[in-house]
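B., you asked whether I could sanity-check this one before it goes into the benchmark set. Here's the sequence:
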Amino acid sequence: MQKKILIQILVLIGLAYVFLIMGNGVISLTNPDEVFYTQTTKEMIQQKTWMTPYLFGQPQFEKPIFLYWMLRASIEILGNTPFAARLPAAFIALLGIVAIYLLGLIGFKDSKKAFFSGLVMLSCGFYIGLSRSVFTDMIFSVFILFALLAFYWGYTYPVRKGIGLLLFAFFSALAVLTKGPLGCIITLAVVIAFLFVKKELKFLFCKYSLWGLLVFCVVALPWYILMEIKYGASFNREFFYNDHFVRLIKAEHPAADTWYFYPATLIGPIFPWSLYTLFALIYLVRGIRRNTDNFILFLGIWIGVILLVFQFAHSKLTSYIFPLFPALGLLTADFICNKGLSVKNPSRIFYTLSLITAIVILLFPVGLVAALSSYVMYVGSRAPVYALAITLFILGVFSLVFALRKRFTGLIFTLVFLPLVMLLGAASVIKDIEPYASSKPAVEYLMQNHTVSGQIICSKFFARGVRFYTDREVVVVDIPGTPFFSPHPVPFLDSDVKVREFLGKQPVTYGIIKKGNVVDFRRLTEGYFKFEILKQCGNEYVVRVLPLQ
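And here's what the prediction gave me:
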């Protein structure tokens, strides 16, 4: 049995490397978030500090310190490359797959279900996307997973209670260092809610909880105390007020501020398992009503608490509820095994879901080819797209045949490798996509072909990328516009008058701006300056403004 478990873990690690890490340096760091975190780390290195995050030459406190520590260690070892910047999240994501397997092993007491839990998660589109990006969400979510794994391990095996609670406190503290107080609010809320429902709150009343509190304080609090002592009101205003309280009462992305946003976006990101996950949740509700086993109840409370915590905040993003995705993966694998793979006669609903999923995959290449005519300007050559369409069609045919013949194991493994095929297809056109995602091509053209002095004017969305790739001071133009949600210590030009005043101070001004700002510049420079478009790179326009002779 132990040999089987070891083999399954090694297989999951190997697959996780391919799905989550391999090829992470192919595309340059993208706007606006990847360059934000990596530029902050670069400026910390320049400032020779491990404690204070910097951006645009000033301390910034949009996120706590842990991600920057991991980024700095990776960059110091591997160099300032896209692969190095993306490695921390990807490596933690790999460990998360192992953690999901272990939690499934403890909860289901079934190595097959545990193995398929890992497969579902590592092939989940959202999990792959966040593992290949420089964000806090993956690291934060996996630390929450580690904490809840530690608790449930100690809960299930009383002899492990002490080490389980200590590890629960330790990983909760790391989550707090990664994204803030929610790191312990979520983990504590899940545990307390679970124990309350089980009428076992006394589980926490022991000496190990006190030792755990000490561990949490020793790990989580020193950085916050240091920032409080060193920066006081400015730290409190940006970190606690603007980036936590304001997000509760004000929407950073107003279009997402609806009551149905999270229910509507919960299932899609777990593709290609979406339909199985939907029915796994339906069966979860039924199971909880019938007083199901502890583990299913635990997963249900895990999902419910996170949805409840984030539902009432006005700032909403699907990535905010990513900490519940490991629970979704476990429930989905449980449903797949119970209704299809581990029974002699798979249920009719499982057969129907498999058939629909196969048909959807079969329709993918049709949609891809149809979309190509509308988005041909983004692709240099159609050949890779047609190759991907043909490959997806073949996978769709295999999926349909497996579903019709009730060869569900073959179907599930086809679904596992579907996202990998799509990744390889995306990689084949990555150089065509890159100018629309990263400021690097526009910056390279500007710096290699023109002598740039003074401040570079740029659109708000490109400001961080231009700073990252040039190391020069930038000025942001947005007419009419709103300031950054989090304060940025850069000049902000939101009117024609301010832009003309700025342009009049420099003999030559270079800029990287969006199409809308090109229209603004043509209008506001007419009769005052000479405005030139030097090059278009994707959706970024490299421009030059000179005074009229």
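One thing to flag: The chain has a mean pLDDT of 92. Otherwise nothing jumped out at me.
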